Amino acid sequence: MAKSLSCFFLILFTLMHFAWGCFKYTCKTSEQVFLPETCIYNDNLTDTYYSRKCSDSKYQCVPDQTSSYQFNYSCSLPTPQHYSNNPGEFCKTSDDCSYALPCKDGICIGTAKGGECQNSGTCEPGTYCKDNICVPQIKIGESGCTSDYDCVNNAACNETSYNDPTKNTCYLYKSFKVHDPVAQCYNGKSMLCPYSICWEDFHNRVFYCTDLFSTVKGQGAECNPDEEDDSCESNPDSFFNPPYITGGNCQCSLNSQGTAHCSALPGDPASLQYNKIWTKWIESKDIFKCNTFSRTDSNCVKTYWSTKDYNAFVYYQTQLTMLNSIIGAEDCVLETMAENWLEIKNAYDGHGNNDDDSDGNSDSGAFALEISILIAVAIY
Length: 380
Ligand SMILES: *[C@@H]1O[C@H](CO)[C@@H](O)[C@H](O)[C@H]1NC(C)=O
Ligand SMILES: *[C@@H]1O[C@H](CO)[C@@H](O)[C@H](O)[C@H]1NC(C)=O
Ligand SMILES: *[C@@H]1O[C@H](CO)[C@@H](O)[C@H](O)[C@H]1NC(C)=O
Prior knowledge:
By secondary structure, this protein is α+β, with helices and mostly antiparallel strands. About 15% of the residues lie in helices and about 15% in strands. The strands form six sheets. It has a five-stranded mixed beta sheet with strand order 1-3-2-5-4. The chain has a three-stranded antiparallel beta sheet with strand order 14-16-15. It binds 2-acetamido-2-deoxy-beta-D-glucopyranose (3 copies). One 2-acetamido-2-deoxy-beta-D-glucopyranose binds near residues 44 and 69. This is Dickkopf N-terminal cysteine-rich domain-containing protein.
């Protein structure tokens, strides 16, 4: 329902492991001879990917179109992409706006209050689609919501009753306390909870906000992708019955040793860093300038925040997503398989925390547009 990031050239890889471990990723050796177009050569005898940068930065390194078990990657020109931004987000022409909405003064324009709608994605910021009409979002402390998107942009719905929305109230994000009951908990998340995490107590079948938990073995701990192991486990929250223990995902990394590592849990440093800038966004006035679906979307952040703050937002967000994929990865591999991560990192470093100026016109912001969240190579 909410729009996706598909407008970027979003290369969604999943670093899959094969039957007996992870692939290895390293630089092309001087003895190896590559075809001109090859940027990654897969040696199927050693299960190693050898990488070299494309000759020109206008190329992208993409998997060869083949269904074979293991494959090379080639340098190719990316196809031009358009955004599909929601009302309130930037555009050059109407092609950059979702639902072919008009682009006026560089912003996608939605349907105003009182206009017809099919879903909230076409409604102007400050409104949502109710019974096919864009109506003002529900304020904090008021009832009638059936989803978080019905509430003002800094609030979520405590949806106590599915049948009777008058029992459901909009509350400020993060306004509940640790171990407060919460009506909904999707995939362990509720924006109402102090750390946005929750869990069900299986004894009394009630969802509660959980305390902050982290990876016992440390952020990005090495793990075994092929077997059940406890490397990625969190510390327990004993408030729950039985005590709540969760774990990060174990994923193969892009390094030359072929090791796998755990994704970060909410209490791990990468999550805390992202949470800090994310909280700054949800507490800012700018969040109200976004369509209800794209309230936390990086394109809306880009539209209203300075280049410096936006770069930091995207940097911490991407770092969190890619953390375990990039552990120990060599630059020659990142240059082909995680090019966008390098661009985001350079934009962030370049706009450093040391320049506090009015800045903004460097083109490093443009890099960060291409949030390709690295990952697949599903090789079976
Ligand atoms: C993979 O790349 C290498 C080096 O360029 C080349 O020799 C080989 O033929 C390629 N294999 C396939 C299946 O395209
Ligand atoms: C390994 O690659 C070669 C050619 O590059 C191919 O002939 C062979 O079948 C491959 N082996 C496997 C196990 O896929
Ligand atoms: C939120 O919903 C839960 C479950 O219905 C309820 O127990 C709790 O009291 C609600 N919280 C508030 C602040 O209304």
